[in-house]
Amino acid sequence: MNILMVSWAWAPVGGDWTYIANMERLYKESGYNVIPFSTKRDDNVPNNFEEYFVKAYDYKALNKKKSLTNAYKTVQNAVVSFEAIRNLERLLDQYPIKFAHFHIIHHWVTPAIIKVLKKRNIPIIWTLHEYKLLCPEGTFISNEKVCEKCKGGKFYSCAFNSCKKGSFLASCLASFDAYYYHNSGLYNDVDYYLCPSYFLKKKFTEFGFQKEKLLLTNYCYDISSLDSAAQKIQFTENKKPYILYVGRIEKLKGIITLLNAVKDTNIHLKIAGTGAFLEEAITLASPMSNVEFLGFQNKDMVYELTLNSEFVVCPSEWYENYPFSVIESLLLGKPVVGSDMGGIPELVIHGKTGLVHRAGDVADLRSHLLYLWGNKSLLSKMGKEARDYAYSKVNFSTHWNIMKDIINRL
């Protein structure tokens, strides 16, 4: 039985890939054959269906070399990929598909393929990793602030506010894309939308999506592989205690709030990751002797840093969905101090798996950090609850039981 898995990339290039790889494994272990449909990239995971993949346009490069030709390529392929339509038709002529499972597809594969699948009566489920179907920019971020001005179909707000990359033209294209697909009715042809967090499900309901099509699923995680990697890690003896931030170095990740929260305290903070705000963050922290920037760290090193930390902090100031960085920390038995944004409080249960602070509130975050800092007995108790709670939410068995029910509905 063949399942079509559709994603903008068939490579480990984002958090969504963690879930895609895990779902592919679950499908295969349950007797399904997964057929990928994606874009052609040099770093793609080897597969037997590359001939059907579509060209991966580098829109950043096209934008830098401004010309009428490049503008035409962008408009032609970013909204409706006719190549994806043609290639999918060829694939479906060769392989019978039981149902399709979408992930992130806008601007590369494009939702235009929905029509191809429905013409052949192939059911569609779509895991929502982001907010692109509600917000033309995709993240509810406009000029470094959380924004919901497009609510009620006012997608022109994206263009007026130059939300997409600060570019009016890019934002106009994003607005056009939103109007095109909402007015086409194609989103209504998707059978079920799978929501990793209750917060995301609530947002889609608020923006007018049918409640009965929105199903809360959480994510799943390969816990056995994580545990296997963790068992190989040596704990550092007599280490200087520290707390850990892992992720992109961006303003909306709460970096400024975090740096101000540990300022003039005895808390040692390690920051692992890179991003657009890295240099400014380093400058901001330069007078502080208790902050250490580690740069990019591979997965094994992140595990080691997490296990040797006192606890992890996730002070995000935008609508996080169901962040894998928090899931991994909890699974490794580390409490998390997280903000009250997006799906974070669904993982960080205040007083049990960590502490929840008001996003952007320096004093509130500082008080939470100081409360846990050095509190060994509480950290140990929370660490155990963190592991148990995360395990109950994202283990393969629980997730597959949810997926089986959805497949039966199809």
- The average pLDDT is 93
Query: What is the CATH class name of the largest domain?
Result: Alpha Beta
Cα separation of the termini: 14 Å
Tell me the radius of gyration.
22 Å
Strand neighbour order, sheet with most strands: 2-1-5-6-9-10
What are the low-pLDDT stretches, counting only 5+ consecutive residues below 50?
none
- In the residues, how many domains can be counted? 2
What is the third-level CATH name, the topology of the largest domain? Answer: Rossmann fold
Key phrases:
Rossmann fold; 6-stranded parallel beta sheet; 2 domains; alpha/beta; 17 helices; 3-stranded parallel beta sheet; globular; 410 residues
Explain this structure to me?
- The protein is α/β, with parallel strands linked by helices and 410 residues long.
- The chain folds into 2 domains: 2-129 and 191-220 and 396-409, Rossmann fold, CATH 3.40.50; 223-394, Rossmann fold (3-Layer(aba) Sandwich).
- Helices cover 42% and strands 14% of the residues.
- It is built from 17 helices and 16 strands.
- It has helices at residues 15-29, 59-64, 68-79, 82-94, 113-119, 156-160, 168-184, 198-206, 223-231, 255-262, 278-285, 299-307, 324-331, 344-347, 362-372, 376-394, 396-409; strands at 2-6, 33-37, 39-40, 54-55, 99-102, 124-127, 141-142, 145-146, 192-195, 214-216, 243-246, 269-272, 291-295, 312-314, 336-339, 354-357.
- The strands form 5 sheets. It has a 6-stranded parallel β-sheet, with helices on both faces. It has a 3-stranded parallel β-sheet with strand order 11-12-13, covered by helices on one side.
- The longest helix has 19 residues, at 376-394.
